[in-house]
Amino acid sequence: MTKRVLMFPGQGSQKLGMAADLTEDIRELTRDIDFDVTAVMAEDETRLNQTQYTQPAIVSHSAALLQSFDAEYDYTIGHSLGEYAALVASGVLKAEDAIKIVAKRGELMANAFPAGVGSMAAVLGLDYEEVEAICNEISTEDAVVEPANINCPGQIVVSGHKTKIDELVANGKSLGAKRVLPLNVSGPFHSSMMQVIADEFRSFIDQFEFKETAVPIVQNVAAVPETSVEVIKEQLIKQLYSPVHFEQSIRNLIDAGVTEFIEVGPGKVLGGLVRKISRDVTISSIETLEDMEGWKQS
């Protein structure tokens, strides 16, 4: 019997004009957000690429599509930010609450450090142990760089103080990497530096109702299916300052018998990562209502 997982993208998947066919649904879902999410999606690329606006935009896109998804699935997973849409799909959070939470999350992440303090970069061509060894070698007591997103074989994102990220970008080839590409982000996301916002974020999410899971979620921190609400909440806090173990999550899902991976939301980034992890699974992308209809008919 086929096992199916719904996947939800994170930051970096946004693009101007996204979710144009879902405008009314998104307006309804974001009526308590203090800016016009649909206007930002349609016409304000500058704000769309700023963390505090990106996060509610991406999650509302995925959540709006979910309202039209009526097939069964066995697991959910999100990449970083996408974990909140996965919680909606798993029945843990209401869509409106997930969007409110990521709006606050984005605001805290964007304002955690002054501009130019933290950064991230993609390291290509090395495995996790090699990247971790390089990070340990160049980090100091006052300035760190750490693995942040373990995405697929040969693609690992690092995060930390910008001075160390710049050093790694400049010296990456001599350290053995094929390339090290700086990312256009405003902070050291998924690094230990982000612990500074953990307590405030914990206090914020405590006001929302987290229901029992209808479908297990594979969270970024542990990479295994989870159903405990207490563990889910704790791992949402840890996710702020811990690596995203996406590759291991996908491998664990395949080991659990999953053969169908469906990406719901903007872009096809996660499908591309899964394809690099395994060629033996079926991958689909649902970005629009038209895609949804096409998938249902296939």
- Considering the protein shown, what is the CATH homologous superfamily of the largest domain? Malonyl-Coenzyme A Acyl Carrier Protein, domain 2
Helix content: 40-55%
Mean pLDDT, to the nearest integer, reads 96
Q: Please give the CATH architecture of the largest domain.
A: 3-Layer(aba) Sandwich
Number of H/I helices? 13
Topology:
Layout: E1 3-8, H1 23-29, H2 37-43, H3 45-48, H4 51-66, E2 75-78, H5 83-89, H6 95-110, E3 118-124, H7 128-138, E4 145-152, E5 155-161, H8 162-171, E6 179-182, H9 198-205, E7 217-218, E8 225-226, H10 229-239, H11 246-255, E9 258-264, H12 269-277, E10 282-286, H13 289-297
Parallel strand pairs: 1-2, 1-9, 2-7, 9-10
Antiparallel strand pairs: 3-5, 3-6, 4-5, 7-8
Family: Belongs to the fabD family.
Domain Malonyl-CoA:ACP transacylase (MAT): 7-292
GO molecular function: [acyl-carrier-protein] S-malonyltransferase activity
Q: What is the compact description of this entry?
A:
By secondary structure, the chain is α/β, with parallel strands linked by helices. It is 42% helix and 17% strand.
